[in-house]
Every structure is written in C-alpha cells, then in structure tokens.
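FAQ: What does the model actually see?

It sees only this:
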Amino acid sequence: MVFDEPASPWTSPLAATEPRVSWFLESTRPEAAEGRRVVNDLYSRFPDPEGKLRERLRSTNDVDLMAALDELLVHDHLQRRYQVEYEDSGKKRTRPDFRLYDRNGTYVGAVEVLTLFLREDWQAEERRHAMLADALNARLRLAAHSVEFEVPRWDATPSARHMAKWIEQALDELRANPDALPVDRFGARQKTYSTRAVEIAVQFRPLPPTYVVDETKPVVLGGAPIGGCINSYARLRERLDDKAGKYDLRGGPFAIVAGLRDPMCDLDDMVDALIGNEALVVATGESIRLGNGFYGKESRRAAGFAGKHTRVSAVFAVQDWWPGGPYPPRITRFDNPFATAAFPPDALPLDGHWGEVERGPTHVRADWLCPPRPRAFPRGVTKVCARLCVPPDPLPSTQMMVDSSEAPRRRVHRVRRRPPGPLRYIQRAGRRPPAPAPPSCRARPSGWFSTSRRAGSTARKRSARASPARGRSRHDRLGRLGLDHAPHRPRRRDQRRHADHARGWRARPGVNRPRGPPPAQPTPCG
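And it is asked to produce this:
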C-alpha cells in the first residue's frame, strides 16, 4: 500500500506552492479518497520489491510523482495481456522500463516511458507567482471580494506585507463605494500596485450574493498567467531522439510512451514533433511538412524509403491522467511507417490511432486511422454544453506523404508558432495568391514596415511621403493582395522591379509602358 487514510479531516484546497502528493497524504475530500484507492490498486500489481516506485509516489518532488504515475498506468495496461518485467537485468543505461513476454515466455517487445513537463523558465515564473499568492493568502481574509493579479513588470520580489496592506486599503475603498476603482476591459475593478520592484495589476471580483463566506478560503484565486512562444514540440522531439537509440531491444519492436504533463502541449504539438513542422511553398502556396520530424525519410533529397528511427515502432501520448480526477486518461498511438518491426496492436487501449494509410511503390501516406477521442466531460455537464465543446475533425495537415523519388528543391517558409490569431498566408510579391484571403485578413497601412535599413532609406521614406503611389512599401502591396509580409527582405535591385510591378508598369530596356491604370488604395477585406 502506498497511501493510508488520513487520521484527521482536512478539506481545504492545496496551496499554490504545496507539493501535489499532499493531496493523497492529507486531504479527506472524496476525490482524494478515490485517488488513493486507484493508486493503491495499481501499485498492488506492480513489481516493486525494493520499494523504489513507492518512494517516488510519495515524493514531495512533483516531477518524481508525475513520472511514477505515468509508469504505474502504463504497467497496469501492459500486464493485462503480457508478462511484464520492470527494468530487468542488464546495464542500467541500456535497459528500457518494461520488457514484454507472452504467456509462453516468448519475447514480444520493449516499452520506455518519458514525461514531458513545462519549460523550466515558465516553471520558475509560475512558482514565483505562486509564492506571492500564498504569502498574500496568509495575510488576507476573505470578505466580499476575491483577488486575481497580472504582472506587467517584475524586477525583484515585492514585499508581501506591504502589498497585503495595499490590497486591504483597496478593499476598504470598494466596501465604502463599489464604483471607487476603474473597470478593466473584462468588467472587473482593477488597481495597479507599482513600486521600484514590480508593477502588478490587481483585479477585484465581487462574490455572488448567495455565497457563504468562509474566512479560511483563499482570497487570491491564482497567480498571474504565463505565456510566450511555445516550443513543446521541439522539446518533445529532443526527448524522443534521446530515447530512440540508447536501449538494447533484442531485435524486437520498441514503443515510447510520452506522458504529456506540459499544459502547453497537446496532440498538435505531438504531430509537429513526429512528422515535422508546417511550411508553405513560397512559389505555389502549397502547405507541406518539413523533413525535421521524428518520423520520415532520413534525407529528403535521397531516393528510396530510408527512414529515420526505424528501431522505434510507435509512440504513444498519454493525456489527462490523474488518479481520481474528473477525466479518464486518453491514449493516442502514432505508428512509425518506416519501423523495422510492428508493435503489438493490443498492448495499450487506444482513444486515437495515427499510422500508415497507403503504401505504393513510389510513396507512403500516413494519416488518422481512428481520429482521437475528444476529452470526456465531467459529471454535471449537460449534453448541450458537451455538444458545443466537441472540437472539429482533425485538420488535413496531420497527414504525412513521403515520396521515394528525390525531392525537388523548393523555397519554403517555416510557419512558426504564434499567439492565437488568424493563420498568416505568405506569398512573394508579383505572384497570384493560391486562394482568396481569409475574412479576418486586413491590409497593412503604407509604411508599416521599412523596405530597407541601408544607406538611402531616408531618401526613399521622403519620396514615400511626397508620392504615396511611388513609395508604397512592399508589405503594403502584399496587403492589397490580402497577404501578410513575405519571409525575407527584398534585395535592393529587386525593389525597383517590385515597385514597378505594383504600379502596373512593365519594365523593358529603355522604356516603361503602363499596362493599365494604377491600382486603387488598399481597403480592408471582410
């Protein structure tokens, strides 16, 4: 047994900086009791004579706890159909987590489990905000408002005692006059706490009239949000590369199970890590996948089907796994089309399956064999709400087409991850776009981006102010086509040719003859 029932009742929520294992060790809520029962039941079938996994399950380090829970779940599914050995004899650096044998003792394959966590810098930022929230909750008492905050600037750790007094004064102002503070864009009362160390925007949200106030409840609901450029797919790809070639597989199939504990990582990042990043062919606007994924051909320029990581038969993604949580775990399988040995199809239960769809003498195509099941909804959600929340079918960009012939040399632009917003369509100047622009696209105003920073740019800018048609920037011309900026800055000798083309003139030796009237000023589309 891993967790015993707590001796004293404790139903308060976990503090922001409290280790997750305290939920199983101390909480007496029904969800925590169910989580203890699940963990104890799974551990009763786990081969752990030395008790190493039990120590990790009771660790105050969340990384050890989450990794141990992933191994516990994978083992429980594998042992239902096979005889499983956990880290059997062999050198530690060359043995996978599990080796599978059938009922007759024949070797079947190997399984390795990895867990992907949040980026270290984001973890540090999240913990920094959590420590501030816990310090404020220790000094404040819940009355009529709850508090949230955002951090525009953080140069040093602020004084929690001074900030708590400042929040109490703001709450006193709201009790005396509910309209004393300004309203932010979301309708909440807001006030900015500004010192030399930090600048924190604090939102005050009134409690519902029917809410029964409990002074033991936290006042600060959560820390500030974090975000930026997401690179989960790149970190996952590095972890897979590290696991692919370091184990003794005994000539059998090999599968890697990735526990996605990173809240920024989803199945789209999993697809990017396995089959490569999305890119657009500049000349035609065709959407393709770069050959930098974990799967695919060894070289895009070479002929034949020499694949990468052929020792790896499949990669599994595990999501929403938490003992006693509101969601059942989801497992999605991604087969390697170039694997030397196929992994058993019944090893793990599946909620989605991606693999080879078509194979011919000159090509291999892979796509969803069974689309992934959307997240199950917790108890209490109506069917109407569930129907509205179901995501659409997977996009066609999840398919991978590999040709055995030598790939042509094409100029492509890599699509980078950006904050949520409309997809940016990119096309070179002077070429017709492959499809109409999306309704959310807007034409860029003139001079939105300088055409050059070299010598003479001041003169061109002065010419642009004197003659808008002559000095119209290259990015404005693309905006008139309903397109965003091109991925490269044009050369100086190309600028004159692109400018003539935008004005409707045809360049000839010694003469420029107009083809028609100059184009109208750009207007927003949609």
